[in-house]
Amino acid sequence: MSLAALANDELLRTARSKLDLSTIIDPQLQRLNLNPATINVNEIRSAMKTVAAESPVRENTASSALDGLVKYIPTESVTLYVAATSAISSLTAAFPSVTASGLYLSFIILTPVLFMLIYIGKRRSQKLSFMPDDVTGWPWWKLFASTIAFSVWALAVPPLVTGDAGKVVAGFGAVLVSTLLGLIGNVVEPAEAS
Predict the structure, then answer these.
(1) Residue-averaged pLDDT of the chain
(2) 3-state DSSP call for residue 95?
(3) Cα separation of 104 and 83, whole Å?
(4) What's the distance, CA 184 to chain centroid?
(5) What distance in Å separates the CA atoms of residue 118 and residue 158, rounded to the nearest whole number?
(6) What are phi and psi of 73, to 5 degrees?
(7) What is the pLDDT of residues 104-139, one digit of tens each?
């Protein structure tokens, strides 16, 4: 999943609890010239809140399993890393201090930075404060999980791991860690506020 999608997921998760449906429903009632005395506005608000809290996409078993496997893999970091590793010989020729392991470590550091920049940008586009007021409201789990997912998945991409045995272990490790992150995320990530 992309870092942008993780940031969207975090914003949706936290914003639903602050959703004021009266700002959506009341203008529509006025537009339809409905008399509040003939309808129970509170019942409509309650029904709309239930509908708004539901996921707009119905999940099936296959998509749920695949989503769980790739949920925390930061596609922006992986894409940039694959491009950089494919150009490693050119990069090393231009900058002799660039090594495969240095590039790997740089992208491990870059992943949480990218996530936070995307997250902050999305908060600003939603006209929210720069960061959540309380430090416990920060997306710590998604930040940690996307960094771990990248660090493991990047090992499955040449040139860092060589040899058939290393490639098999890296590939298996990437699938195993992605699965574990999805399972752990279900436990440690704060529940959606209702």
Answers:
(1) 79
(2) coil
(3) 12
(4) 15
(5) 27
(6) -75, 115
(7) 999 999 999 999 999 999 888 888 888 888 888 888
